[in-house]
Structure to design on (356 residues):
């Protein structure tokens, strides 16, 4: 593993950044070489900061990684590949500058997701969209590649087989989103315990626009978004990990619930297990048990990379409705960014990165 590619993690002390660092510990292609934090933590050692964070005392890293000094995002970075877990409030400008310096920035932030020449990628669904990077070369020597919002990942994955087989016209999605999706410090115990908050800032806008870009068609250096509407309602619930969605879909072609369930269960993504280290054996798992999926029981299926579906049935208003569960920290965030970096590597992007 001595020939692994050096990777830096921006925002390494946040919830997603810590998970990225953990996923990189034994990665066959990448080696964690640099970490960054906020202006308050820059200059301190990673281990010292994590030991002081509630919930992170049990995180196990080698002494070498624990001793890494946290860089400020604007510092000089040596790693050709940078995985960004920065908050969107600061990510836009920082990631742009790093791309200008020649880095491949694989971002979990929302800042550049809807930029015309920035691919919004789920490797199993739309790996061809990575070709948009060629358009970025007109702006800078590096590249920015993004993964979707943590809820959108699950929604887009289950819409993909339905859109391709039957056509999708209209979608409604009511979300029940876990506390870990709020990052730190998140809602206070007094706010969320025994309660549901019916608003998550910025979430509905992302859910209503990102799936169409992901499921759109690439041609002539641009994405033509898929022509369906998504109407979301978002809620923060007192669940630790795992976003659950109640989804209803109107299809262009008639299909029974049994045919929809079969299309979901039998869907084979564009990237198969084994092609990328982090791709799971099963992209979508469909339950017959009407009490599933549940965050506590099913969030970690496929090492957190499998999206689970249940209660596929007729909808009295649209055509079909079902429940969807996605692991928001892995499939929806850290694992999503890491698989995008893996896809970039197999497509030769890391060979062409020369940070300056």
């Amino acid at each position: 593993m001595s020939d692994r590619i050096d990777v830096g993690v921006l925002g390494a002390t946040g919830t997603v950044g810590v998970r990225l660092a953990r996923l990189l510990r034994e990665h066959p292609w990448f080696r964690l070489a640099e970490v960054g934090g906020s202006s308050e933590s820059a200059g301190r050692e990673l281990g010292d900061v994590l030991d002081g964070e509630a919930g992170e005392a049990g995180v196990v890293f080698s002494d070498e990684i624990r001793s890494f000094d946290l860089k400020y995002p604007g510092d000089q970075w040596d790693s050709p590949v940078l995985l960004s877990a920065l908050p969107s409030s600061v990510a836009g400008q920082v990631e742009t500058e790093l791309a200008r310096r020649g880095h491949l920035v694989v971002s979990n932030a929302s800042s550049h997701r809807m930029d015309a020449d920035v691919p919004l990628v789920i490797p199993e669904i739309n790996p061809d969209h990575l070709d948009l990077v060629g358009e970025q070369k007109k702006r800078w020597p590096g590249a920015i590649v993004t993964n979707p919002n943590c809820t959108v990942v699950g929604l887009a994955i289950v819409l993909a087989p339905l859109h391709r087989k039957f056509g999708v016209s209209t979608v409604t999605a009511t979300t029940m989103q876990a506390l870990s999706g709020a990052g730190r410090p998140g809602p206070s115990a007094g706010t969320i315990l025994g309660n549901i908050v019916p608003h998550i800032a910025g979430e509905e806008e992302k859910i209503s626009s990102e799936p169409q870009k992901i499921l759109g068609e690439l041609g002539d250096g641009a994405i033509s978004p898929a022509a369906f509407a998504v109407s979301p309602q978002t809620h923060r619930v007192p669940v630790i990990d795992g976003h659950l969605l109640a989804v209803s879909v109107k299809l262009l072609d008639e299909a029974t619930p049994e045919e929809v369930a079969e299309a979901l269960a039998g869907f084979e993504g564009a990237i198969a297990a084994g092609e990328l280290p982090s791709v799971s054996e099963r992209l979508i798992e469909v339950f017959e048990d009407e009490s599933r999926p549940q965050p506590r029981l099913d969030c970690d299926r496929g090492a957190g990379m499998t999206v689970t579906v249940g209660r596929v049935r007729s909808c009295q208003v649209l055509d079909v409705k079902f429940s969807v569960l996605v692991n928001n920290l892995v499939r929806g965030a850290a694992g999503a960014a890491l698989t995008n970096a893996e896809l970039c590597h197999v497509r030769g992007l890391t060979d062409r990165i020369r940070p300056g």
